[in-house]
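Comment thread on ticket #2218

A.B. wrote:
> Attaching the input chain for the structure job we discussed in standup.
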Amino acid sequence: MGTMTDTRIQRLPEHVANQIAAGEVVQRPASVVKELMENALDAGASLIEVELKDAGRNRIVVEDNGMGMGSEDAALCFERHATSKLRSADDLLALATMGFRGEALASIASIARVELRTRRAEDELGVRLVVEGGAHQPVEAMPCSVGTRMVVKHLFFNVPARRNFLKSDSVELRHAIDEFQRIALAHPECAFRLSHNEGELFDLPVGTLRQRLVRVFGAKYDERLVPVEERTDVVSLAGFVGKPEFARRTRGEQFLFVNGRFIKHPAFHGAIMRAMDGLLTPGQFPLYALFLEVDSARVDVNIHPTKVEAKFQEQGSIVAILQAAVKRALGRFHVAPSLDFDAETAFDIAPPKPGQEVEEPKIQLNPDYNPFNAEKEGGKGQSGGRASLGSWGSKTAFSASRADATRRFFESSGPNECQAEEVGPARLIFSESKATQSVDKVPLEFDQQRPLFQLFGGWIVTATRSGLVLVDQHRAHTRILYERLSSELSMSSGSQQLLFPEDLAVGPSDVAVLKGAKASLVGLGFDLTFPEEGVVRVSGLPQEAAEGSPSVLLDAVLEELRDAGEVDVDLRQSRAIAGVARGAAIPSGRTLTRAEMLDLVDGLFACQEPDRDPWGRSTLATFDKDAVEARFR
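C.D. wrote:
> Ran it. Output below, let me know if you need it in another format.
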């Protein structure tokens, strides 16, 4: 046995223990915002104001009009495991407050310079207390408003390694805004304000949940919300889900609250997604803000320091109720299931009925048009009757290179055994035997040999000698524009200035995203300024998308950049290009002329990667001739 002097195990000093705890509780400025806002709510505040400087790394102020504290409580609140919310272990089974661990303030004070000012309504004077790196200064009496004001300066000043791990101001601000939004959505009965570097970002008055959602995300969300409500002995459910057609490809608008507390729960999220089976394109995520009220004795939130996870005694029942409630709410809206090119789908094609008359589409032809002469005629665009992509953003004619690409595709299957030897002039335009024919016969044979029509307003059906091809018009045009925009970027084609600049209202978090990616957007051709908080002025657009809607284009770009985080410049630029391409592409549901369909199919097969859009989704599906014939045997 060793002597006392040989003892290697020692009790850690209190400030060191607090710094270790801070590693779990305080990960970034947003963590401080969350903890202090929750304390304000537990104090009964009806107004909470948050001020940030440099995204919170240098200054965070949270002020409320709650009950305040006396001098003894003010001194004790920074002690570890000191809390007013629990008295015994049994209280954990009936939690009605946001906080309960008694760790947050001690952890924050151990890695920052903190000033507390607080006063109760029954006290004439308030108190002031300063804690720096865990060291307490004496409590002072001073006049102040009823409530509590907490100032946190120089976060991680004494832990430089942790401070160095903080991201850029734009990223840290987005995290702080996320925490602010979650708490503000959970408590529409309380007013909130948020400012950054002395500029106001949010001013949210007391209102209903729907009003709070619209205030946080913008007026356009009002028409996108579907109310959900269900009451059972197991759980009471209320809130909103977004209409499926407004779902996004990125996460970030999914809010689930249990007894007023924001949580992340994969099983509940899965229930909501299953309720939308057939209504969402794979990879899309709908908006939802749903509130579950569960008996506190049947839920445990004491399983993670950040309190964003929970366990439920009757999880299976809640999952089933949640899925059924969302599905029933969506049933009020008729939404056609989408067609997924990436799924293995067997199309059930009904055979024609005996005696059924089929109306053949009327084709308008211009015999003077020669697709192979477009470049020789000086590149005058879509002359001779071929429609251009117009407002879709196309600026190039059908060139010989595009014809070659299409030729390679349509010749890939070999001779067509079913083709009659003589069917007038309707022989495949790219066959060798027709290489020397007169140019005035080219378009006639091209159009007749190539059946082309639009299906359900979103897909183009055409044929090769080996079978059928189904082209998704939106994904195809997105691929075309993506490659053209990438090419234009390398050539620095510049920006197309708008005759009338357009001011667009955007949320504070989106402003941070745009400012963080401004260099990439300028290189792409956007001319953006920020005349006031919550407003972006669009004065110029990329050349290839100059005829598009600034609002639609910016929404598409934001959707790609929201989750980009600290990615490298090239990847951010690629995401921005993909967003512009998607925003400028023709939408599903738009009726196309035959000439426009030809342009789209030809342009797709001139791409370097025609079979996939920028996100790897299929742009086309092929159906082998043998498989089609087998359906009629």
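A.B. wrote:
> Thanks. Noting for the ticket: The mean pLDDT is 77.
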